[in-house]
Amino acid sequence: MCDTKKVGILGVGMYLPEKRLTNKDLEKIVDTTDEWITTRTGIKERRIAREDEATSDMATMAAKRALEDAKLTPADIDLIIVATITPDMFFPATACIVQDKLGARQVPAFDVSVACSGFIYGLAIAKQFIASGTYKHALVIAAEKLSTITDWSDRNTCVLFGDGAGAAVLGPVEKGGILSVHLGANGKQGELIKLPAGGSRIPASKKSVEDKLHFIKMNGSELFKHAVKIMADAALEATKSLGLKAEDIKLVIPHQANLRILNAVAKRMGLTEDKIYLNIEKYGNMSAASSAVAFVEAIKGGRIKRGDKVLLDAFGGGLTWGAIVLEW
Ligand code: ACO
User: pTM (2 decimals)?
Assistant: First the structure.
């Protein structure tokens, strides 16, 4: 497609549930230690949503804050995308529920299900609609309530995940904005992380519940190996297409799956660790919401200034991956 308009971020917002679950708390639930979790993952605590707080509630809070930041109202929005693997329900799409909660117009609203790469896929899709002149303003929200698909008796996974939401309003800009997008997927490795039941392959049944098939199943060590290569390669593709070198990037804002993965990615890219934005210590892995929340924090915390080039980089279940270079 021939882009006709530059597309940038007009505002951002995030929402994190109040409840903190620390590694010490987890020591009381499964056979683990704060020391193991900290050294193997970098995580110290994660946020857990209230029972009555669904993904759409967190998404709506983040969206309201992003709209306020952009000085726009729900009436200005022409497209709503929610990236999530923990929708309120199979259908209607969480994006439709958010549209209603926001009081937005009857604009297109749909979900994107590519796990941790969701925020980047969402930004990439919205960018196309705005660049082509089809829509002016899009809301891209990444929201997850992973605590509902976590097996709290499985120490291999339950220490990793958390809940939260981040959002961005996109629109036309005079200069800068999203400069390059690189997306990919490899369905052959889909078995490495999945939620097996509840769909048409294994519909919900007494047995599927007893067998705990409604929880995340993950081959952590295999994923680890793929993650480092995938994230580094995606980042290099997105920068190379612009003729940029790693040192031209002010800050890399990655999906926060594991501190050791991020340190290995930095090394592979020839970057010092201070160029990688990290918040995994506070929130764990929030799937699609991880890179969104990190992006919002980096902006609000002054880590990015106008004119800086920033790289968003993620990988996730599917397997999927995505990298975006943007000028803030
Ligand atoms: N506490 C204590 N011991 C544990 C825990 C725990 N919470 N979890 C696992 N162990 C044990 C294992 O049982 C194993 O023991 P054994 O040697 O007696 O069998 C030992 O620790 C080592 O296990 P490994 O799985 O080899 O540990 P590893 O160093 O690979 O770390 C981890 C595991 C943290 C899961 C790591 O592999 C990882 O982060 N992988 C990537 C995961 C990832 O990116 N997932 C998300 C991608 S997609 C998405 O985000 C939706």
Answer: 0.96
Check if 2 is active-site. Answer: no
Active site residue 255: yes
Kindly report the backbone phi and psi dihedral angles of residue 12, in degrees, each rounded to the nearest multiple of 5, phi listed first. -135, 155
pLDDT in tens, 195-251: 999 999 999 999 999 999 999 999 999 999 999 999 999 999 999 999 998 889 999
260 lines ligand 1 (CB under 6 A): no
Burial class (CB in 10 A: 0-12, 13-18, 19+), 184: middle
d(CA 238, CA 79): 25
Map out the domains of the chain as residue ranges.
Answer: 7-175, 179-327
179-327, superfamily in CATH? Answer: Thiolase/Chalcone synthase (3.40.47.10)
Is 285 an annotated catalytic residue? yes
Which of 176, 77, 85, 174 has its CA nearest to residue 129? 77
- Domain 7-175 and domain 179-327, same fold? Reply is yes
Tell which atom from ligand 1 comes closest to the C-alpha of 317.
Answer: 48
Among candidate residues 23, 96, 137, 255, the one labeled active-site is 255
What fold is seen in the domain 7-175?
Peroxisomal Thiolase; Chain A, domain 1 (3.40.47)
Do 236 and 242 meet the contact criterion of CB atoms below 8 Å apart? no
pLDDT value at residue 1: 44
Would you say the CB of residue 94 lies under 6 angstroms from ligand 1? no
- Dump pLDDT digits (tens) for 24-65: 999 999 999 999 999 999 999 999 999 999 999 999 999 999
- Find the 261 Cα to ligand 1 centroid distance in Å: 12
